[in-house]
């Protein structure tokens, strides 16, 4: 997993004032699933990337590339 993606995901989440649990709840996934994305253990599929963009109100490109 790309470390830049993981860092971007964490930075964007924090700038939105959300916890990992809050994002996970919005995505309807368990908190550990979302935490694994930020830690680079697993990666979200394209549908989850779209949902993350909606939640954070940023483009998928912003999440991936910063």
Folded structure, characterized:
The chain is mostly helical and 66 residues long. It has a single domain (3-65), classed as Orthogonal Bundle (434 Repressor (Amino-terminal Domain)). It is 71% helix and 0% strand. It contains five helices and no strands. It has helices spanning 3-15, 20-27, 31-39, 46-56, 60-65. Helix 2 packs across helix 3 (31-39). The longest helix has 13 residues, at 3-15.
Q: What Rg is obtained from the alpha carbons, in whole angstroms?
A: 10 Å
Unreliable parts = none
Largest beta-sheet characterization:
none
CATH topology: 434 Repressor (Amino-terminal Domain)
Shape: globular
Compressed to H and E, one letter per element, the order equals: HHHHH
Mean pLDDT: 96
Proportion of beta-strand residues: under 5%
Give the number of domains: 1
- DSSP strand count: 0
Helix content: over 70%
List the helices and strands and how they pair.
Elements: H1 3-15, H2 20-27, H3 31-39, H4 46-56, H5 60-65
Helix pairs in contact: 2-3
Gist of the model:
This protein has 66 residues and is mainly alpha-helical. The chain has helices spanning 3-15, 20-27, 31-39, 46-56, 60-65.
Keywords, please?
5 helices; 66 residues; mainly alpha; 434 Repressor (Amino-terminal Domain); 0% strand; single chain
């Amino acid at each position: 997993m790309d470390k830049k993606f993981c860092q971007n995901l964490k930075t964007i989440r924090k700038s939105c004032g959300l916890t990992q649990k809050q994002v996970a709840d919005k995505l309807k996934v368990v908190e550990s699933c979302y935490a694994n994305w930020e830690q680079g253990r697993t990666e979200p599929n394209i549908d989850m990337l779209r949902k993350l963009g909606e939640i954070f109100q940023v483009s998928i490109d912003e999440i991936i590339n910063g």
